[in-house]
Amino acid sequence: MIKHFVITEYGLVRRASDYLLSGRGGTLSDVFVSDETFASLKQLAFKENADPILSFTIQKGRECLRVKNHIGLLQTPDGTQLEILPKIANNSNTTQARFCLLKMLRCVPNLPFQTLSQAHLQHAQLPLWEIFISAFITEMEKLTRQGIQKSYVTNEGEQPFLRGKWLINRQNYIHPEVLYMAHDEFQSDIVPNRLLKTCLLFLAKRSRYLSNQTRLRQLRFVWDEVDTSEDIIVDFEKINGLMRHFNRYEKALQWAKVLLNQQSWNTGGKDLNDSLLFPTERLFECYVALGFKKYLSDFEVTYQENLHFLVNDHAGKKQFKLRPDLVLRQNRRTQVLDIKWKWIEPNISNYGVEQSDLYQLYAYGQKYKANQLFLIYPSHESFQHPLPTFHYDDVLGLTVIPFDLISPLADEIEKIKDFLINL
């Protein structure tokens, strides 16, 4: 049975046996796993060429692992699932944090999370894995209502009668009474269907949510005539050239690939075969940028523009390309915005804003001849309003703006738009 733990980013994973006598209970920032699971995660923390997902530390003589800036699902060889959620508050609420993660995932390109509906978001009280399973089932139910696609498949073999094409060069002349024939059959047992059937059976063993289990059983009955894939990697490669004939299968197959391969949106996917992890900063950046491009129609919005370089070398060659997250243009005014996933605290020195970020925005302001500069950070209980403006000089200023992940994206962009216009 799958063991499931929920933790927020930057939380600590501890070995349960170290705390048996303390009576401590786990929280979203502090979970206790079995010794076997801890050993697997510790091995990952020291693995070469893997993204920095976990860091090893010692507290009061006991080994701990700190979750870093990735969110999503991590599974260990013993079947334990670690669900890592974004930290959106000092005392994070699991449902709200998962809801924010799902909203950000819907902006990920080239993966099926864009099909997550509002109904899926409303079930954020369920484990992330079960929500993904439900989304796959929804796509499968659509295909089933439309009818399982069939195709002609060439079968070869020995037969006692003529059927199809006689392959003389493969005829066994020791037994001339048996003919080696090739014939086409119109059937549903084809590669795309096998991959989907394989995913159905895979999920049926891993789902613990009654509604998903029921829907999976119903689908397995309908898809009973289809065999499973013998090699999912090879079969996914085979369907690349077939997709123009299976357009309506696209989303279901994307989900199957993600769920079977545990594919994530980061370069560490090859090292973490059982992970669905995403860099938090990239998710947040993509989500905010999508909102500006979709809902800020009064401005010309450019995402990660690369028109300018920081310097020219002694030979006049341009070097160090600048790539601000967002450039807004309206009525000959230029505003440059950068998006950061960092924790801002209005009551501490420098608010938690890093000096390097201020240098970076200053370079953007000079090269783009910007009228205004902005840094966007996630909001939380202590950071609900823009910070007082930093002034580089009498003309150029930088304002730090909170971005609320819980509120609807359109509402949040409208609120920032009013601020951009009235500043």
Task: Provide a quick synopsis of the model.
The protein is an alpha+beta fold and 423 residues long.
Provide the helix percentage. 25-40%
Shape: globular
Looking across the biggest beta sheet, what order are the strands in? 12-15-16-17-19-18
Q: Describe the sheet with the most strands.
A: 6 strands, mixed
- Averaged pLDDT, please? 86
| Proportion of residues in β-strands | 15-25%
Radius of gyration: 27 Å
Low-pLDDT runs of 5+ residues are 267-273
The number of distinct β-strands equals 19
Provide structural commentary.
The protein is α+β, with helices and mostly antiparallel strands and 423 residues long. 32% of the residues lie in helices and 24% in strands. It is built from eleven helices and 19 strands. The protein has helices at residues 35-45, 94-105, 118-121, 128-146, 191-204, 210-222, 232-238, 250-261, 280-295, 355-368, 409-422, and strands at residues 4-8, 12-15, 30-33, 54-59, 62-67, 70-75, 81-85, 151-159, 165-166, 179-187, 275-279, 300-303, 309-312, 318-321, 326-330, 333-339, 372-378, 390-391, 397-403. The protein has a six-stranded mixed sheet with strand order 12-15-16-17-19-18. A four-stranded mixed sheet has the order 1-7-6-11. The protein has a four-stranded mixed sheet with strand order 3-2-5-4, covered by helices on one side. A hairpin with a 2-residue loop joins strand 15 (326-330) and strand 16. Helix 4 runs antiparallel to helix 8, helix 5 runs antiparallel to helix 6 and helix 5 packs across helix 8 (250-261). The chain is globular and about 95 Å long. Residues 267-273 have low confidence and may be disordered.
